[in-house]
Amino acid sequence: MKLSATAATRIEEVSRLLRSGKAQRVTLAPLVLKETLRNLLARRARLFTEWQAQREGHGHVVSFKRHLRPTPHTPEGRVVTGQFEILEGGKELCVLASILGSDEESHGPRLLARRAYPLGVRPFVKSEDLLRRVINLAKAREWFPICVDAIGYDRETHEFRRDMKHQSIADAFREMEDQGRLVHQVKVSFRAEGGHARLLATLNRYGRAVVEHGEVSLVAKEFVVASAEDWARGGRELSVVREATRSRQKVVRLVFPRSTLVGPEEIAALCDALRRGHGLNVTTVHLNPYLNAQVLDYLTGDAVQLVVMDDASVSLLPRSVRSRGTVERVVATIFRFFGEAEVRVEPIGKSNWRGGSAD
Predict the structure, then answer these.
(1) Measured CA distances, 223 to 62, 176, 228, 314, 328 (Å)
(2) How many CA atoms lie within 13 A of 149 on its CB side?
(3) Structural domains in the chain (count)
(4) Quick check: bond before 118 cis, omega within 30?
(5) Is residue 300 situated within a structural domain?
(6) Neighbours of 46 (CB within 10 A)
(7) Which of 101, 103, 18, 14 is nearest to 59 (CA)?
(8) What is the CATH number of the domain that holds 101?
(9) Which residue has the higher pLDDT, 357 or 82?
(10) What CATH number does the domain containing 308 carry?
(11) What is the pTM of this model?
(12) How does pLDDT run across 305-325, given as a tens digit for each residue?
């Protein structure tokens, strides 16, 4: 995966706005496309009160307006307007790019990215892959990555905790792990020898980057596009479908690094975590002697069978030939709200599957 030459040139132009002070930040957010970009733009225009996507050589320039509902602070409602760009990278990739403030960003490109599914999906990388991408970015210029702000997610409290201690990126991740949190977002100062700051960027597990200083094109290549590429590669590995015969059937097994599902409370936490995914619901078939549940994706109508046979793994089986996107989404939701695990795709005969017939 890579951005088109015209899209890469456009990023260089936007970088000059940052260097000149005409922009305070540049935000880049990748989408892995499941359908054509044209179809995505046409079907998601309804998210906005007004929407215009102008075709350009590098992609599209999007102008939008949203009328927001009244709140106690704004009893008459309010209007948010803005403009952002969609940079093209072939049939599988696009990158939403903007220099908007946080409010306009939230109600424009960020809203589009969050609601793109199932036409497009935000990549989701594990914490260890986020660390790897930060280190690779630093190595590209022989810089030292210093974490200046980190946000970790505690799966038990469902809360984020912020740590603004300046420390090496490796120490920041290690400290989060010791506290039982998953690193979701880091703000990193990349420094050259002598301590001079060359790049300041906020990077998260969705492959999203907010660059406040430095080479935007480097961040686009080494982090944003690379994260999308990692997720697309993993998605192809998760392309398990419902087969007509058991002998051909495969299951996706998530193996946690430690005993994570030791009792009813942990099982309930897993189901609650899945329900936190937009449009996902979980129906329990039975809990004894093992968990057998159905995860329904209301946005596609597809379902995935979920079985927990031991205290350290979860097995997933698609219920239809169209469920591969739902399997991918269920895995990302578990990683996001419950915990990260090793992904294995196994023949059903070699797994510990006891979730009923696969024929």
Answers:
(1) 24, 21, 9, 29, 21
(2) 8
(3) 3
(4) yes
(5) yes
(6) 9
(7) 14
(8) 3.30.530
(9) 82
(10) 3.30.160.110
(11) 0.91
(12) 999 989 999 999 988 777 778
User: What type of residue is 290?
Assistant: Y
Q: Which amino acid is at 4?
A: S
84 Cβ neighbours under 8 A, 6+ residues apart? 61, 62, 64, 96, 97, 98, 100, 105, 108, 109
Question: In this predicted structure, which of 90-94, 185-189, 312-316, 318-322 has the lowest mean pLDDT?
Answer: 318-322
* Residue 81, pLDDT above cutoff 70: yes
What is residue 354's predicted lDDT score, i.e. its pLDDT?
56
Q: Decide if 140 contacts 222 (C-beta within 8 A).
A: yes
Measured between alpha carbons, how far is 164 from 152 in angstroms, rounded to an integer? Answer: 11
Q: Which range of residues forms the domain containing residue 225?
A: 127-237
Distances (CA, A) of 274 to 9, 90, 181, 292: 40, 32, 18, 14
68 in the same domain as 37: yes
Q: Report phi then psi at 30, rounded to 5.
A: -85, 150
